[in-house]
Amino acid sequence: MSSDTPSGYRDGIASRLFRDVLKIRHLRILAALDQMRQITKVARAFNVTQPAISKQIAELERELGTPIIHRQGNSVAFTPAGTVLVRHAKDVLSRIQRTEFDIEALRKGLGGNVRIGVASSLMPTIVPEAIRLMIQAAPSCVVTVSEGHFGQMLPLLYAGDLDLLVMRIWKPFTVEGVEQLSLGREPLVVVAGTDHPLSRQKEISWETALEWPWLKAASGSLAADGMNEFLAEKGLGPMPGQIEAASIVLSLSMMRLMPCLALFPERLARYHSARGELSILSISTGGYLSESNCFWLSSQTDETVTLLRECLVQAARDLFDN
Asked: Which residues contact 89 (CB under 8 A, 6 or more apart)?
């Protein structure tokens, strides 16, 4: 081992595991077990027997000198050591996958211009990381981003002026001639400025929340129609408010200036809450607009566009898994 390696790590209890034993198949098994929580399901997914999977896990435990899973009825749970191992396993697999499509993109010499239409609430979350991955994989390509809602963007997709749409949806639906792929789920939460009277209340009903002005989605958008349906299911009227503001930046500014409410992606809301810029209110949104989907024309076969879809999937996996 290199003399640069800290002496405390040269002959550690698990050094043989990481130097000689641990293989990519072990990492894939750990990641699958984290997702499925049952050895029988993992065995079926890998098209091997259950004892074969158990043997792989036992091999890791023997080399580590500590259990990595424990059984809970028909399911398994990770021990603290297993939790650390699976977290790093998923990170390594993610890096391997990124390397794969980076090399494939360079091999194909992908370039050109790919144009995407994005919902405002996804602009600060999935999309920046996907673009970073795209530029890393295909340095000669140009990514053009337009912001808007589904009703605005769909005609541009049909016309060929956009290659992909990345939107939040309220309920599953189909669109003629358009393929779609779920990227994952992230809740929206209700937020307000830190000095808003509701920010000091622990339990808030939708009836109370609707007594205040809202920064709401544009009329006719999936978001607006979905919210009206969501409220109607609760026996409530449409959302009040004179401001239709899709912009996250504008919403933050307006909540500093007046006592209005808005909907933010949960992770973005937690970020701004930690900075003392807004408060997250205790109101359930019931999964409203929590799913993010990618849309493209069924006839679309451009490899650069396909690569960007893969980058979006990877970015979403990184966001939602963490």
From this structure: 26, 27, 30, 31
